Amino acid sequence: MTLLILFLAPAAKLSSFSGLESHISGNNAVPWNIVFTLTLLTILPALVLSMTPMVRLLVVFHFLRQALGTQTAPSNQTLIGLGLFMTWFLMQPVLTAVDQQAVEPYRLGQITGLSAIEKGMEPPRLYMLHYAREKDLELFASASLGVRPAKPEDLPLRVVVPAYMLSELKAGFQIGAVLFLPFLLVDLVVASITTSIGMFQLPPVVVSTPLKILLFVMVDGWNLLAGSLLKSF
């Protein structure tokens, strides 16, 4: 009996292997779809932070929270959620172009997976080139390319993505600095008043923080900030 089992085991294993091979070859697109989807989900946070307006929005929100003097309000989850939905709103034209040029033809079997990736990266690359500064593009192009292309549209992604991120960081810090100035003025006025009347034991931030929050609410600051951020793109 033992010899019979040992004799039949390789045959059964070979039969199951051949059945598995035929199943994979008959549904060749399914495993690659799974691999592509899992890979995309893994790198999705990095793509959102490096190829969308998310960086600028988060920098501005951080400056606003520091200027108001509220260390944990709104929470990080709230600001990230607001930033994600504003990013989705701003990237709708780009996502639509990616769907029309790459996703839909690949779903219909008209193009291969590699061709879909190449076509799908073109709308985000043009979007980033539109907002990347020429100085930042020149910086990374001179550092990574031996022969510089004739026009910015020919630059590879390894040049466009970091240049776009630097440009977004600069824009976020510029907006944050302008946003910080009115609240800094409130801090200076409160500090000078409390010092002049001899209230040395009372920290000025205890008085200025409620005033800054009240001022921000009275001018409908969140609406103004969101509108200014949307108009900056």
Overall structural domain count: 1
SSE-based structural type: mainly alpha
The SSE string, one letter per element, is HHHHHHHHHH
**Helix coverage percent of residues?**
over 70%
Describe the structure.
The protein has 233 residues and is an all-alpha fold. It has one domain. The protein is 82% helix and 0% strand. It has helices at residues 2-26, 29-51, 54-68, 76-90, 92-107, 113-131, 134-144, 157-196, 204-218, 221-231. The termini are far apart. Mean pLDDT is 76; it is low at 1-29.
Which descriptors would you attach to this protein?
single chain; 233 residues; mainly alpha; elongated; disordered N terminus; FliP; bacterial flagellum protein export; transmembrane
Helices, strands, pairings?
Layout: H1 2-26, H2 29-51, H3 54-68, H4 76-90, H5 92-107, H6 113-131, H7 134-144, H8 157-196, H9 204-218, H10 221-231
Helix pairs in contact: 3-4, 3-8, 5-6, 6-8, 7-8, 8-9
